[in-house]
Amino acid sequence: CERINMNQFRFGTGISSYQVEGDRSGRDSCIWDDFCLVKGNIKDKTDGNVAIDFYHRYKEDLQCAKELGIQDFRFSISWPRVIKDDGSVNEEGLDFYSDLVDEIIKDGMNPVITIFHWDLPSVLMKKGGFTNRSIITDFIHYVEVLSKKLSPRVKDWITFNEPQCFIGIGYQKRGQAPKIDCDYITMAKAAHNVLLCHSHAYQILKKDNPNCTVSFVNTFNVPLPYGRKKENMEKELSDILFTVPNTKEEFYTLSIYSDPLYLGSYPEKYLKKTGISEIIEDGDMDLIRKSKPDYLCLNIYTGTYYRNNKEGKTVIYEKKTESEKTDLPWLLRREKSIYYGCKYLYNRYKAPIIITENGGCYHDRLLKDKTVHDKERCQYLRKYLHEVKQCIKEEIDIRGYYYWSLFDNFEWEWGESKRFGLVYIDYKDHLKRYKKDSFFAYQRIIKKSRS
Ligand code: PNW
Protein backbone atom coordinates (compact mmCIF):
# COMPACT_ATOMS: atom_id res chain seq x y z
CA CYS A 1 0.00 0.00 0.00
CA GLU A 2 1.40 3.33 -1.10
CA ARG A 3 2.28 5.67 1.76
CA ILE A 4 1.70 9.34 1.36
CA ASN A 5 3.80 11.86 3.18
CA MET A 6 1.66 13.84 5.59
CA ASN A 7 4.44 15.47 7.58
CA GLN A 8 3.32 18.92 6.50
CA PHE A 9 -0.35 18.13 6.85
CA ARG A 10 -2.17 20.00 9.62
CA PHE A 11 -4.43 18.08 11.96
CA GLY A 12 -6.73 20.03 14.20
CA THR A 13 -10.03 20.34 16.02
CA GLY A 14 -12.70 23.04 16.20
CA ILE A 15 -14.91 24.72 18.81
CA SER A 16 -16.94 27.94 18.80
CA SER A 17 -17.47 30.61 21.43
CA TYR A 18 -21.20 30.34 22.13
CA GLN A 19 -21.06 26.55 22.10
CA VAL A 20 -18.36 26.22 24.77
CA GLU A 21 -17.50 29.38 26.69
CA GLY A 22 -20.29 30.08 29.17
CA ASP A 23 -19.51 33.01 31.50
CA ARG A 24 -22.57 34.91 30.39
CA SER A 25 -21.87 37.67 32.93
CA GLY A 26 -18.62 38.68 31.25
CA ARG A 27 -20.20 39.86 28.03
CA ASP A 28 -23.19 41.60 26.54
CA SER A 29 -26.03 39.73 24.91
CA CYS A 30 -25.96 37.94 21.56
CA ILE A 31 -28.74 36.69 19.29
CA TRP A 32 -28.33 33.14 20.56
CA ASP A 33 -29.07 34.30 24.14
CA ASP A 34 -32.30 35.80 22.80
CA PHE A 35 -33.09 32.73 20.73
CA CYS A 36 -32.68 30.40 23.72
CA LEU A 37 -35.15 32.45 25.76
CA VAL A 38 -38.01 31.64 23.39
CA LYS A 39 -39.89 28.52 24.40
CA GLY A 40 -39.64 25.73 21.86
CA ASN A 41 -36.51 27.01 20.11
CA ILE A 42 -34.09 24.67 21.89
CA LYS A 43 -35.24 21.09 21.88
CA ASP A 44 -33.90 20.13 25.32
CA LYS A 45 -34.49 23.59 26.84
CA THR A 46 -30.80 24.17 27.60
CA ASP A 47 -28.82 27.31 26.67
CA GLY A 48 -25.25 28.56 26.37
CA ASN A 49 -25.17 30.43 29.69
CA VAL A 50 -22.65 27.98 31.15
CA ALA A 51 -22.07 25.65 28.17
CA ILE A 52 -18.96 23.61 29.01
CA ASP A 53 -17.38 26.47 30.97
CA PHE A 54 -14.42 26.72 28.61
CA TYR A 55 -13.98 30.32 29.74
CA HIS A 56 -12.74 29.14 33.14
CA ARG A 57 -11.25 25.80 32.18
CA TYR A 58 -9.37 26.63 29.01
CA LYS A 59 -5.93 25.87 30.44
CA GLU A 60 -6.91 22.37 31.42
CA ASP A 61 -8.71 21.93 28.09
CA LEU A 62 -5.66 22.99 26.13
CA GLN A 63 -3.63 20.33 27.91
CA CYS A 64 -6.06 17.86 26.49
CA ALA A 65 -5.67 19.28 22.97
CA LYS A 66 -1.90 19.15 23.34
CA GLU A 67 -2.07 15.51 24.42
CA LEU A 68 -4.15 14.77 21.32
CA GLY A 69 -1.22 15.94 19.21
CA ILE A 70 -2.99 18.43 16.94
CA GLN A 71 -1.15 21.24 15.15
CA ASP A 72 -4.05 23.68 14.71
CA PHE A 73 -6.48 24.75 17.40
CA ARG A 74 -9.54 26.39 15.83
CA PHE A 75 -11.81 28.50 18.03
CA SER A 76 -14.04 31.53 17.57
CA ILE A 77 -14.34 34.90 19.25
CA SER A 78 -17.52 36.15 20.81
CA TRP A 79 -18.14 39.60 19.31
CA PRO A 80 -20.15 40.88 22.32
CA ARG A 81 -17.34 39.77 24.67
CA VAL A 82 -14.94 42.09 22.88
CA ILE A 83 -17.20 45.02 21.94
CA LYS A 84 -19.75 46.27 24.46
CA ASP A 85 -23.25 47.37 23.52
CA ASP A 86 -22.16 51.03 23.59
CA GLY A 87 -19.36 50.28 21.12
CA SER A 88 -16.50 50.52 23.60
CA VAL A 89 -13.92 47.76 24.03
CA ASN A 90 -14.37 45.22 26.81
CA GLU A 91 -10.74 44.96 27.89
CA GLU A 92 -11.36 42.00 30.13
CA GLY A 93 -12.96 40.06 27.30
CA LEU A 94 -10.17 40.95 24.92
CA ASP A 95 -7.57 39.88 27.50
CA PHE A 96 -9.25 36.51 27.75
CA TYR A 97 -8.59 35.85 24.05
CA SER A 98 -5.10 37.25 24.29
CA ASP A 99 -4.28 34.87 27.16
CA LEU A 100 -5.92 32.02 25.29
CA VAL A 101 -3.73 32.68 22.26
CA ASP A 102 -0.58 32.82 24.42
CA GLU A 103 -1.48 29.57 26.07
CA ILE A 104 -2.18 27.79 22.76
CA ILE A 105 1.21 28.87 21.44
CA LYS A 106 2.94 27.92 24.70
CA ASP A 107 1.43 24.46 24.33
CA GLY A 108 3.03 24.14 20.92
CA MET A 109 -0.11 24.61 18.83
CA ASN A 110 -1.17 27.17 16.25
CA PRO A 111 -4.28 29.28 16.95
CA VAL A 112 -6.79 29.49 14.08
CA ILE A 113 -9.38 32.14 14.82
CA THR A 114 -12.90 32.35 13.44
CA ILE A 115 -13.99 35.96 13.83
CA PHE A 116 -17.69 35.28 13.41
CA HIS A 117 -19.33 31.98 14.30
CA TRP A 118 -22.96 33.10 14.58
CA ASP A 119 -23.12 34.95 17.96
CA LEU A 120 -24.01 38.43 16.70
CA PRO A 121 -24.44 41.13 19.40
CA SER A 122 -28.15 41.65 20.07
CA VAL A 123 -27.77 45.43 19.71
CA LEU A 124 -26.65 45.00 16.12
CA MET A 125 -29.56 42.71 15.37
CA LYS A 126 -31.91 45.46 16.51
CA LYS A 127 -30.50 47.52 13.65
CA GLY A 128 -31.23 44.70 11.19
CA GLY A 129 -28.12 42.55 11.60
CA PHE A 130 -26.51 41.69 8.27
CA THR A 131 -29.43 43.10 6.29
CA ASN A 132 -28.23 46.62 7.19
CA ARG A 133 -25.17 47.83 5.33
CA SER A 134 -24.09 49.77 8.40
CA ILE A 135 -22.93 46.46 9.91
CA ILE A 136 -19.78 46.88 7.84
CA THR A 137 -18.68 49.80 10.02
CA ASP A 138 -19.31 47.77 13.17
CA PHE A 139 -17.46 44.76 11.80
CA ILE A 140 -14.48 46.90 10.78
CA HIS A 141 -14.23 48.27 14.31
CA TYR A 142 -14.41 44.77 15.82
CA VAL A 143 -11.74 43.41 13.47
CA GLU A 144 -9.42 46.39 14.03
CA VAL A 145 -9.56 45.76 17.76
CA LEU A 146 -8.78 42.06 17.29
CA SER A 147 -5.99 42.65 14.83
CA LYS A 148 -4.31 45.28 16.99
CA LYS A 149 -4.30 42.96 19.97
CA LEU A 150 -3.64 39.56 18.41
CA SER A 151 -1.66 40.11 15.24
CA PRO A 152 1.06 38.90 14.60
CA ARG A 153 0.72 36.15 17.22
CA VAL A 154 -2.28 34.87 15.27
CA LYS A 155 -1.33 34.01 11.71
CA ASP A 156 -4.42 32.21 10.50
CA TRP A 157 -7.79 33.96 10.44
CA ILE A 158 -11.21 32.91 9.24
CA THR A 159 -13.68 35.74 8.85
CA PHE A 160 -17.00 33.87 8.67
CA ASN A 161 -18.35 30.44 9.45
CA GLU A 162 -21.04 29.12 7.11
CA PRO A 163 -23.26 31.93 5.79
CA GLN A 164 -25.31 29.05 4.35
CA CYS A 165 -26.51 28.50 7.91
CA PHE A 166 -26.59 31.87 9.63
CA ILE A 167 -28.11 33.64 6.62
CA GLY A 168 -29.71 30.73 4.71
CA ILE A 169 -31.46 29.35 7.77
CA GLY A 170 -31.45 32.21 10.29
CA TYR A 171 -32.92 34.90 8.02
CA GLN A 172 -35.76 32.79 6.71
CA LYS A 173 -37.38 31.82 9.97
CA ARG A 174 -36.01 28.34 10.39
CA GLY A 175 -34.41 26.63 13.36
CA GLN A 176 -31.61 29.05 13.95
CA ALA A 177 -31.10 32.59 15.35
CA PRO A 178 -32.17 35.29 14.59
CA LYS A 179 -35.18 33.43 13.12
CA ILE A 180 -36.52 36.41 11.20
CA ASP A 181 -38.50 36.22 8.01
CA CYS A 182 -36.86 38.14 5.18
CA ASP A 183 -37.94 38.51 1.59
CA TYR A 184 -35.64 37.50 -1.23
CA ILE A 185 -33.97 40.85 -1.80
CA THR A 186 -33.33 41.42 1.90
CA MET A 187 -31.59 38.06 2.09
CA ALA A 188 -29.50 38.95 -0.93
CA LYS A 189 -28.47 42.16 0.83
CA ALA A 190 -27.47 40.23 3.93
CA ALA A 191 -25.40 37.80 1.88
CA HIS A 192 -23.70 40.67 0.04
CA ASN A 193 -22.92 42.50 3.29
CA VAL A 194 -21.27 39.36 4.65
CA LEU A 195 -18.93 39.30 1.65
CA LEU A 196 -18.13 42.99 2.12
CA CYS A 197 -17.42 42.48 5.82
CA HIS A 198 -15.08 39.65 4.89
CA SER A 199 -13.30 41.85 2.37
CA HIS A 200 -12.76 44.73 4.75
CA ALA A 201 -11.46 42.34 7.40
CA TYR A 202 -9.11 40.83 4.82
CA GLN A 203 -7.62 44.25 4.06
CA ILE A 204 -7.16 45.14 7.74
CA LEU A 205 -5.55 41.85 8.71
CA LYS A 206 -3.20 41.79 5.71
CA LYS A 207 -2.17 45.38 6.32
CA ASP A 208 -1.25 44.57 9.91
CA ASN A 209 0.55 41.37 8.91
CA PRO A 210 1.10 40.68 5.20
CA ASN A 211 2.16 37.12 6.05
CA CYS A 212 -1.08 36.10 7.70
CA THR A 213 -3.75 34.03 5.99
CA VAL A 214 -7.37 35.14 5.82
CA SER A 215 -10.02 32.65 4.80
CA PHE A 216 -13.76 32.04 4.73
CA VAL A 217 -15.72 28.88 5.62
CA ASN A 218 -18.44 27.43 3.39
CA THR A 219 -20.56 24.36 3.94
CA PHE A 220 -22.59 22.32 1.48
CA ASN A 221 -24.34 19.02 1.01
CA VAL A 222 -22.38 17.00 -1.55
CA PRO A 223 -24.14 15.38 -4.55
CA LEU A 224 -22.78 11.81 -4.68
CA PRO A 225 -22.94 9.30 -7.54
CA TYR A 226 -24.73 6.04 -6.83
CA GLY A 227 -24.48 2.82 -8.82
CA ARG A 228 -22.21 1.87 -11.70
CA LYS A 229 -20.45 4.30 -14.04
CA LYS A 230 -19.86 6.86 -11.34
CA GLU A 231 -17.30 8.77 -13.42
CA ASN A 232 -19.96 9.56 -16.02
CA MET A 233 -22.05 11.34 -13.42
CA GLU A 234 -19.36 13.54 -11.92
CA LYS A 235 -19.71 16.48 -14.28
CA GLU A 236 -23.47 16.61 -13.93
CA LEU A 237 -23.36 16.32 -10.14
CA SER A 238 -20.80 19.06 -9.89
CA ASP A 239 -23.15 21.24 -11.99
CA ILE A 240 -25.99 20.43 -9.62
CA LEU A 241 -23.84 21.60 -6.73
CA PHE A 242 -22.90 24.93 -8.31
CA THR A 243 -26.18 25.79 -10.00
CA VAL A 244 -28.31 28.26 -8.10
CA PRO A 245 -31.91 27.18 -7.60
CA ASN A 246 -34.62 29.72 -8.25
CA THR A 247 -35.91 30.14 -4.73
CA LYS A 248 -34.84 31.39 -1.33
CA GLU A 249 -33.01 28.03 -1.09
CA GLU A 250 -30.34 29.92 -2.95
CA PHE A 251 -29.06 31.34 0.30
CA TYR A 252 -28.39 27.85 1.50
CA THR A 253 -26.21 27.09 -1.51
CA LEU A 254 -22.55 27.45 -2.14
CA SER A 255 -21.87 29.45 -5.26
CA ILE A 256 -23.57 32.74 -4.37
CA TYR A 257 -20.89 33.11 -1.68
CA SER A 258 -17.97 31.17 -3.14
CA ASP A 259 -18.14 32.39 -6.75
CA PRO A 260 -17.69 36.08 -5.85
CA LEU A 261 -14.98 35.24 -3.31
CA TYR A 262 -12.90 32.86 -5.43
CA LEU A 263 -13.86 33.80 -9.02
CA GLY A 264 -14.66 37.46 -8.54
CA SER A 265 -18.29 37.56 -9.63
CA TYR A 266 -21.74 36.34 -8.70
CA PRO A 267 -23.21 33.45 -10.74
CA GLU A 268 -24.79 34.90 -13.89
CA LYS A 269 -28.18 33.39 -13.25
CA TYR A 270 -28.26 35.06 -9.86
CA LEU A 271 -27.22 38.47 -11.20
CA LYS A 272 -30.07 38.44 -13.71
CA LYS A 273 -32.70 38.40 -10.98
CA THR A 274 -34.66 41.57 -10.47
CA GLY A 275 -33.17 43.83 -7.87
CA ILE A 276 -29.85 42.07 -7.33
CA SER A 277 -27.71 44.46 -9.33
CA GLU A 278 -29.10 47.45 -7.39
CA ILE A 279 -27.70 45.99 -4.19
CA ILE A 280 -24.16 46.11 -5.53
CA GLU A 281 -22.60 49.56 -5.16
CA ASP A 282 -19.67 50.97 -7.11
CA GLY A 283 -16.42 49.51 -5.89
CA ASP A 284 -17.98 46.54 -4.09
CA MET A 285 -16.90 43.90 -6.56
CA ASP A 286 -13.40 45.36 -6.86
CA LEU A 287 -12.97 45.12 -3.11
CA ILE A 288 -14.24 41.54 -3.07
CA ARG A 289 -11.88 40.62 -5.92
CA LYS A 290 -8.94 42.03 -3.97
CA SER A 291 -9.86 39.88 -0.97
CA LYS A 292 -9.72 36.35 -2.32
CA PRO A 293 -9.42 33.98 0.66
CA ASP A 294 -6.09 32.18 1.03
CA TYR A 295 -7.68 28.83 1.73
CA LEU A 296 -10.79 27.12 0.58
CA CYS A 297 -12.15 26.25 4.02
CA LEU A 298 -14.84 23.59 3.84
CA ASN A 299 -17.10 22.13 6.46
CA ILE A 300 -18.03 18.77 5.00
CA TYR A 301 -20.36 16.45 6.82
CA THR A 302 -22.63 14.59 4.46
CA GLY A 303 -24.08 14.18 0.98
CA THR A 304 -27.06 13.14 -1.13
CA TYR A 305 -26.91 10.21 -3.54
CA TYR A 306 -28.03 10.54 -7.16
CA ARG A 307 -28.56 7.74 -9.65
CA ASN A 308 -29.52 7.34 -13.29
CA ASN A 309 -33.06 6.09 -13.71
CA LYS A 310 -34.39 3.96 -16.57
CA GLU A 311 -34.98 7.01 -18.74
CA GLY A 312 -31.38 8.02 -18.21
CA LYS A 313 -32.33 10.97 -16.01
CA THR A 314 -30.33 11.79 -12.91
CA VAL A 315 -32.54 11.61 -9.83
CA ILE A 316 -32.08 11.57 -6.07
CA TYR A 317 -31.63 8.14 -4.55
CA GLU A 318 -33.45 8.35 -1.24
CA LYS A 319 -32.60 5.10 0.53
CA LYS A 320 -30.35 5.19 3.55
CA THR A 321 -28.76 2.25 5.28
CA GLU A 322 -28.64 1.62 9.03
CA SER A 323 -24.88 2.09 9.14
CA GLU A 324 -25.20 5.56 7.61
CA LYS A 325 -27.46 6.85 10.36
CA THR A 326 -26.09 9.01 13.17
CA ASP A 327 -27.80 10.71 16.10
CA LEU A 328 -28.87 13.69 13.91
CA PRO A 329 -31.43 13.36 11.10
CA TRP A 330 -29.55 15.56 8.58
CA LEU A 331 -26.23 13.88 9.17
CA LEU A 332 -25.70 10.55 7.38
CA ARG A 333 -22.27 8.96 7.48
CA ARG A 334 -21.31 9.31 3.85
CA GLU A 335 -17.55 9.59 3.72
CA LYS A 336 -17.53 9.95 -0.06
CA SER A 337 -18.68 13.54 0.54
CA ILE A 338 -15.08 14.35 1.37
CA TYR A 339 -13.81 12.84 -1.87
CA TYR A 340 -16.38 14.38 -4.22
CA GLY A 341 -16.77 17.60 -2.24
CA CYS A 342 -13.06 18.38 -2.37
CA LYS A 343 -12.80 17.29 -5.99
CA TYR A 344 -15.67 19.45 -7.29
CA LEU A 345 -14.52 22.46 -5.28
CA TYR A 346 -10.86 22.14 -6.15
CA ASN A 347 -11.61 21.82 -9.85
CA ARG A 348 -13.68 24.97 -9.80
CA TYR A 349 -11.70 27.23 -7.48
CA LYS A 350 -8.14 25.82 -7.53
CA ALA A 351 -7.30 27.04 -4.04
CA PRO A 352 -5.62 24.95 -1.31
CA ILE A 353 -8.22 23.26 0.88
CA ILE A 354 -8.56 22.98 4.62
CA ILE A 355 -11.40 20.83 5.90
CA THR A 356 -12.29 23.08 8.80
CA GLU A 357 -15.08 20.85 10.12
CA ASN A 358 -16.07 17.22 9.86
CA GLY A 359 -17.46 15.09 12.64
CA GLY A 360 -19.88 12.45 13.80
CA CYS A 361 -22.82 12.82 16.16
CA TYR A 362 -23.55 9.71 18.21
CA HIS A 363 -25.42 8.82 21.34
CA ASP A 364 -22.59 8.19 23.81
CA ARG A 365 -22.75 6.36 27.13
CA LEU A 366 -20.43 7.09 30.02
CA LEU A 367 -19.78 3.77 31.74
CA LYS A 368 -19.25 3.29 35.47
CA ASP A 369 -15.50 3.08 34.97
CA LYS A 370 -15.73 6.47 33.17
CA THR A 371 -14.90 5.15 29.73
CA VAL A 372 -16.85 5.92 26.56
CA HIS A 373 -16.64 3.30 23.81
CA ASP A 374 -17.76 5.33 20.80
CA LYS A 375 -16.99 2.72 18.19
CA GLU A 376 -19.13 4.44 15.55
CA ARG A 377 -17.31 7.75 15.88
CA CYS A 378 -13.94 5.98 15.58
CA GLN A 379 -15.18 4.38 12.40
CA TYR A 380 -16.58 7.69 11.11
CA LEU A 381 -13.22 9.33 11.65
CA ARG A 382 -11.23 6.58 9.96
CA LYS A 383 -13.53 6.39 6.95
CA TYR A 384 -13.58 10.14 6.32
CA LEU A 385 -9.83 10.46 6.79
CA HIS A 386 -9.29 7.65 4.33
CA GLU A 387 -11.04 9.81 1.72
CA VAL A 388 -8.80 12.75 2.60
CA LYS A 389 -5.80 10.56 1.81
CA GLN A 390 -7.40 9.43 -1.43
CA CYS A 391 -7.79 13.07 -2.48
CA ILE A 392 -4.18 13.84 -1.69
CA LYS A 393 -3.10 10.83 -3.77
CA GLU A 394 -5.05 12.30 -6.67
CA GLU A 395 -3.26 15.61 -6.16
CA ILE A 396 -6.13 17.56 -4.74
CA ASP A 397 -4.34 20.09 -2.58
CA ILE A 398 -5.70 19.46 0.93
CA ARG A 399 -3.56 21.04 3.62
CA GLY A 400 -5.46 20.25 6.79
CA TYR A 401 -8.32 18.47 8.53
CA TYR A 402 -10.02 19.68 11.74
CA TYR A 403 -12.31 17.29 13.56
CA TRP A 404 -15.56 18.80 14.91
CA SER A 405 -15.47 18.86 17.81
CA LEU A 406 -12.82 18.47 20.49
CA PHE A 407 -15.55 18.50 23.17
CA ASP A 408 -19.22 17.73 23.38
CA ASN A 409 -20.84 21.16 23.45
CA PHE A 410 -24.00 23.20 23.02
CA GLU A 411 -25.26 21.88 19.67
CA TRP A 412 -27.41 24.92 18.77
CA GLU A 413 -31.14 24.12 18.47
CA TRP A 414 -30.46 20.59 19.80
CA GLY A 415 -28.89 21.92 22.96
CA GLU A 416 -26.72 19.62 25.04
CA SER A 417 -28.53 16.51 23.87
CA LYS A 418 -26.39 15.91 20.78
CA ARG A 419 -22.72 14.99 21.10
CA PHE A 420 -19.92 15.44 18.55
CA GLY A 421 -16.93 15.46 20.91
CA LEU A 422 -13.78 13.40 21.16
CA VAL A 423 -14.07 14.27 24.84
CA TYR A 424 -17.24 13.54 26.80
CA ILE A 425 -18.77 16.23 28.99
CA ASP A 426 -20.72 15.01 31.99
CA TYR A 427 -23.43 17.67 32.21
CA LYS A 428 -24.84 15.98 35.31
CA ASP A 429 -21.58 16.00 37.26
CA HIS A 430 -19.82 19.35 37.26
CA LEU A 431 -18.99 19.25 33.55
CA LYS A 432 -16.24 16.74 34.13
CA ARG A 433 -14.29 15.76 31.02
CA TYR A 434 -13.63 12.16 29.91
CA LYS A 435 -11.68 11.16 26.83
CA LYS A 436 -13.65 8.89 24.55
CA ASP A 437 -12.14 6.02 22.55
CA SER A 438 -12.28 8.28 19.49
CA PHE A 439 -9.87 10.68 21.20
CA PHE A 440 -7.24 7.94 21.33
CA ALA A 441 -8.08 6.79 17.81
CA TYR A 442 -7.47 10.30 16.42
CA GLN A 443 -4.32 10.63 18.55
CA ARG A 444 -2.91 7.43 17.01
CA ILE A 445 -3.82 8.50 13.48
CA ILE A 446 -2.07 11.85 13.90
CA LYS A 447 1.04 10.28 15.38
CA LYS A 448 1.29 7.66 12.65
CA SER A 449 0.58 10.06 9.80
CA ARG A 450 3.25 12.51 10.83
CA SER A 451 6.03 10.07 11.71
C1 PNW B 1 -21.78 23.25 11.71
N1 PNW B 1 -25.83 20.74 7.32
O1 PNW B 1 -23.05 23.57 11.21
C2 PNW B 1 -21.41 24.39 12.66
O2 PNW B 1 -20.34 25.15 12.16
C3 PNW B 1 -21.10 23.94 14.06
O3 PNW B 1 -21.18 25.04 14.93
C4 PNW B 1 -22.03 22.82 14.46
O4 PNW B 1 -21.92 22.47 15.82
C5 PNW B 1 -21.69 21.64 13.58
O5 PNW B 1 -21.84 21.96 12.21
C6 PNW B 1 -22.53 20.40 13.84
O6 PNW B 1 -23.87 20.61 13.56
C7 PNW B 1 -23.70 22.82 10.25
O7 PNW B 1 -27.06 20.61 7.44
C8 PNW B 1 -25.05 22.58 10.40
O8 PNW B 1 -25.23 20.23 6.33
C9 PNW B 1 -25.76 21.90 9.43
C10 PNW B 1 -25.11 21.46 8.29
C11 PNW B 1 -23.76 21.69 8.12
C12 PNW B 1 -23.06 22.39 9.10
User: What's the number of extended β-strand segments?
Assistant: 13
Largest sheet at a glance?
8 strands, parallel, barrel
- What is the rounded distance between the termini? 17 Å
Question: How is the quaternary structure best described?
Answer: single chain
Low-confidence spans: pLDDT under 50, at least 5 residues? none
Q: Which class do the helix and strand fractions yield?
A: alpha/beta
pLDDT averaged over residues: 97
What strand line-up does the widest sheet have? 1-2-3-4-5-7-10-11
Question: Which of globular, elongated, flat, extended, rod-shaped describes the shape?
Answer: globular
**DSSP helical segment count:** 17
Strand content: 5-15%
User: What Rg, in angstroms, do the CA atoms define?
Assistant: 21 Å
The H-and-E topology, N to C, reads as EHHHEHHEHHEHHEEHHHHHEEEHEHEEEH
Query: What ligands are attached or bound here?
Result: 4-nitrophenyl beta-D-glucopyranoside
Report on this model:
- There is one protein chain.
- The two termini are 17 Å apart.
- The strands form 3 sheets. An 8-stranded parallel barrel has the order 1-2-3-4-5-7-10-11, surrounded by 4 helices. A 3-stranded mixed β-sheet has the order 6-8-9.
- The protein has 451 residues and is α/β, with parallel strands linked by helices.
- The protein has helices at 17-20, 31-37, 54-68, 79-82, 91-106, 122-126, 135-150, 163-166, 184-208, 230-242, 255-263, 268-271, 276-279, 284-289, 336-349, 375-393, 437-449, and strands at 10-14, 72-76, 110-116, 156-161, 213-219, 222-225, 296-299, 303-308, 314-316, 353-357, 398-404, 423-426, 432-435.
- The chain has 17 helices and 13 strands.
- Bound molecules: 4-nitrophenyl beta-D-glucopyranoside (PNW).
- 4-nitrophenyl beta-D-glucopyranoside binds at residues 16, 161-162, 165, 219, 221, 299, 301, 330, 357, 404, 411, 420.
